[in-house]
């Protein structure tokens, strides 16, 4: 059986990982619509997404959606937030102790 301290730590870790997924989804959407970063225009076509394109728009009612692009972007931002968190924790531990 796990101790109460371990249970609290596990819950904190699950909440932070869930927060990383939410932040990753938000970052994917936000970065897709930043001019000169997530928008690429080729003639009448507009492509959205950074680093991978996941939404295409052609003047008129035509949209294309690339599921692999959005999954890659979410995983990319999750990895960036996860690594940034690890580095930040390591820096804060070294300065505090």
Characterize the largest beta sheet: strand count, sense, and whether it forms a barrel.
4 strands, antiparallel
Query: Main sheet: which strands, in order across?
Result: 1-2-3-4
How many domains is the backbone divided into? 1
How much helix is in the residues? 55-70%
Overall body shape = elongated
Number of DSSP E strands? 4
Give the percentage of residues in beta strands. Answer: 15-25%
N-to-C series of helices and strands: HEEEEH
Low confidence ranges: none
Structural class: alpha+beta
Rounded mean pLDDT is 87
Distance between the termini: 31 Å
The value of Rg in angstroms is 19 Å
Q: Number of helix segments?
A: 2
Distinctive features:
four-stranded antiparallel β-sheet; elongated; single chain; 2 helices; 4 strands; 97 residues; alpha+beta
Describe the 3D structure.
By secondary structure, the protein is an alpha+beta fold. It has one domain (26-96). 61% of the residues lie in helices and 16% in strands. The protein has 2 helices and 4 strands. It has helices at residues 4-32, 67-96, and strands at residues 39-42, 45-48, 55-58, 62-65. A hairpin with a 2-residue loop joins strand 1 (39-42) and strand 2. It starts with a helix and ends with a helix.
TL;DR of this structure?
This protein is 61% helix and 16% strand. The protein is α+β, with helices and mostly antiparallel strands. Helix 1 crosses helix 2.
Record the SSE blueprint.
Layout: H1 4-32, E1 39-42, E2 45-48, E3 55-58, E4 62-65, H2 67-96
Helix pairs in contact: 1-2
